[in-house]
Design goal:
Chain B: It catalyses: (1S,2R)-1-C-(indol-3-yl)glycerol 3-phosphate + L-serine = D-glyceraldehyde 3-phosphate + L-tryptophan + H2O. The complex is a heterodimer of chains A (about 260) and B (about 400). Chain A has about 260 residues and is α/β, with parallel strands linked by helices. In chain A, about 45% of the residues lie in helices and about 15% in strands. In chain A, strand 8, helix 10 and strand 9 form a beta-alpha-beta unit. Chain A is globular and about 45 Å long. Chain B has two domains: about 150 residues, Rossmann fold (3-Layer(aba) Sandwich), CATH 3.40.50.1100; about 210 residues, Rossmann fold.
Chain lengths: ~260, ~400
């Protein structure tokens, strides 16, 4: 079967709506409810965050959701358990996103196999750099048809963007500005020359823009420069616990979808 | 040299630069340029002048006669506590501030635990007129109030960090976030031999002046540059790296690092990473880490805020793994006793961190002819409150 991420980008070229949330937040068992509700309300792709004790690339919102999720008892093992039947109901591509250490302790090969077994299409591990990936882990990912999604930033030199493009499958995660997540910088403030410069490079992979996308205006602006955009912190902030959860997910998704 | 970092930033299986792409440009620039800069005659000259006339080097190597008599052996103290600002930390910050200037950076950030590295960073920023922001866990801000005031008087901004356990690890996370958000004008002065390559190697080189001086001082005082053994405390491990550096290839010299056992390595209240940890990735380095089976970093504990860290520099993980250095652990109680012993035998009040190295003397078979060098990494001035509370003076 073809990887669902590739299917998505083949069938939809514009305004791809991708959402990040932290597994285990607001409640330990919110994971599948959030995924179902997002799919029902127009999300094209979901990034499920594996919480980590030391999320150095994240701002306050995701730090707090990660801390709460760990306190709730979330772990990578439990997350796989929660997701084991997800493909009976969910069709859109699913990506796991997190820091390298929990994956390393689980075992990278075992992680990739488990992803295939469940039907996870990609992984984003920001502190697994390109060089380490190519040297040690590429085989495990490829054998399990799991895309390793790599990041580029405004500071990434052109030559390195080419290398990242060559090593990537699925899409390239374009960090809108040099920042941690959820800093409140708006996408309009970013230098458009970076988006345009990368667009003109004719990369083999499509791009999604993330960091600094928080509402319909920033989302639609980012979509002008890529196949779509990713919302994380703003969505996590909007999540209400308990009975309000499904409504808050649906309301947020509806407020973005173009 | 056998124990040098390789071109990819590894010591054996440990080290590397596990950085998010947002840090790539800065780390890549450092990696490409640090050796060329710090090996240049101009840099060396400036660095040596400042070490001599500003830091106050060489630091004395002192034969501790009464302590030697007590243990029935020969004990020398490398007096890093006599450096300006009271610890070995200034060796590194002097080197890094010169480097930052060569890189054209105008803003300096740092993390600090006990505040010694924060003070050493604020000091060199005042010296060079650069803007300085120090991240410090909110709990440490409370525990180490005098150092916070010192940093402020030196002109630094001290930012309390409220995430996690509000200690050193969390301060380091926040400093890394600052660097990600300010990739152009800012240099991050990491205080230990931790973090992504080239930091562990760069900081070890700046601290290596300790063992360089030791060699000539020992030759002068004992007739041989080679002691029987060198003892140093280890949190991240910068003073130990400096004390071991020029002896790594001299395999006849026994190297001993002493970690903080806290309330005991068998309890959960410990910071003895090598005793209880497993390999993992934190703060952009693959090294031994205190963590649970899910890969979440666990909270360390030690009476000494400077050793209260759940990781250790990759060089030490490697020296531990290959057996070149031996690592022991000393409990809070053993450390306090050792500090009191030195104070009353020699009239030197050591930092709680350095007292870990002293405590290890109790655990070794010492012969009368042995030459033991203790790296006395810092002064006990900052720890007076803890000492007075415990001993009840």
């Amino acid at each position: 079967m073809k990887n669902r991420i590739n299917q998505l980008f083949e069938s939809k070229k514009k305004n791809i709506f991708s959402v990040y949330f932290t597994a285990g937040f607001p409640q330990l068992n919110s994971t599948t409810d959030i995924i179902h509700e997002l799919e029902k309300n127009g999300a094209d792709l979901i990034e499920i965050g594996i919480p980590f004790s030391d999320p150095t690339a994240d701002g306050p919102t995701i730090q707090r959701s990660s801390e709460a999720a760990l306190k709730n008892g979330m772990s990578l093992k439990l997350l796989f358990e929660q997701l084991k039947d997800i493909r009976k109901t969910v069709k859109i591509p699913l990506i796991l996103m997190g820091y390298f250490n929990p994956v390393m302790q689980f075992g990278v090969a075992a992680f990739c196999e488990k992803c295939r077994e469940i039907g996870i299409d990609g992984a984003i591990l920001p502190d697994l750099p390109l060089e380490e990936y190519e040297l040690h882990f590429k085989k495990d990912f490829e054998q399990n048809q799991l895309h390793n999604i790599l990041l580029i930033t405004p500071q990434t030199p052109e030559e390195r963007i080419r290398k990242i493009d060559a090593a990537s499958g699925g899409f390239i995660y374009m960090v809108s500005s040099a920042s941690t997540t959820g800093t409140g910088k708006k996408v309009e403030d970013f230098r458009q020359d970076y988006f345009e410069r990368v667009e003109q490079m004719n990369l083999k992979n499509p791009r999604l823009i993330g960091f600094g996308i928080s509402d319909r205006a920033t989302f639609s602006n980012a979509c002008k420069f890529a196949s779509g955009a990713i919302i994380g912190s703003a969505f996590v902030k909007a999540l209400e616990p308990d009975s309000g959860l499904k409504t808050s997910v649906a309301d947020f998704a509806k407020s973005i979808v173009l | 040299m056998k124990y040098d970092v390789n071109e990819k930033g590894y010591y054996g299986e440990f080290g590397g630069a596990w950085i998010p792409e947002m840090m790539y440009a800065n780390i890549d620039e450092l990696r490409r340029r640090y050796l060329e800069i710090i090996e240049s005659p101009e840099f060396k000259n400036e660095f040596e002048q400042l070490l001599k006339n500003y830091v106050g080097r060489p630091s004395p190597l002192y034969f501790a006669g009464r302590l030697s008599e007590h243990y029935g052996t020969r004990i020398f103290l490398k007096r890093e506590d006599l450096n300006h600002t009271g610890s070995h930390k200034l060796n590194n910050t002097v080197g890094q501030i010169l480097l930052a200037q060569k890189l054209g950076k105008t803003r300096i950030i740092a993390e600090t635990g006990a505040g010694q590295h924060g003070v050493a960073t604020a000091t060199v920023c005042a010296l060079k007129g650069l803007k300085c922001v120090v991240y410090m866990g909110a709990l440490d801000v409370k525990r180490q109030a005098p150092n916070v005031k010192k940093m402020k008087m030196l002109g630094a901004e001290v930012v309390p960090v409220h995430s996690g356990n509000k200690t050193l690890k969390d301060a380091t996370n926040e400093a890394m976030r600052d660097w990600i958000n300010n990739p152009e004008d800012t240099h991050y002065i990491i205080g230990s031999v931790v973090g992504p390559h080239p930091y562990p190697d760069m900081v070890a080189r700046f601290q290596s002046v300790i063992s360089k001086e030791m060699k000539s001082q020992l030759l002068e005082q004992t007739g041989s540059e080679f002691p029987t053994r060198i003892l140093a405390c280890v949190g991240g491990g910068s003073n130990a790296a400096g004390a071991f550096y020029h002896y790594l290839d001299d395999e006849q010299v026994e190297l001993i690092g002493v970690e903080a056992a806290g309330k005991g390595v068998e309890t959960s209240e410990t910071a003895a990473t090598l005793q209880v940890g497993l390999p993992g990735v934190l703060h952009s380095s693959k090294t031994m880490l205190m963590q649970n089976s899910d890969g979440q970093i666990t909270e360390p504990y030690s009476i000494s805020a400077g050793l209260d860290y759940p990781g250790i520099g990759p060089l030490h993980s490697y020296l531990f793994k290959c057996g070149r250095a031996k690592y022991l652990a000393a409990t809070d109680e053993e450390v306090l006793k050792a500090a009191l012993l030195l104070t009353q035998k020699e009239g030197i009040i050591p930092a709680l961190e350095s007292a870990h190295a002293l405590a290890a003397l109790e655990k070794l078979k010492l012969k009368p002819d042995d030459v033991n060098v203790i790296n006395l990494s810092g002064s006990g001035n900052k720890d007076m409150e803890t000492y007075l509370d415990y001993f009840g003076y």
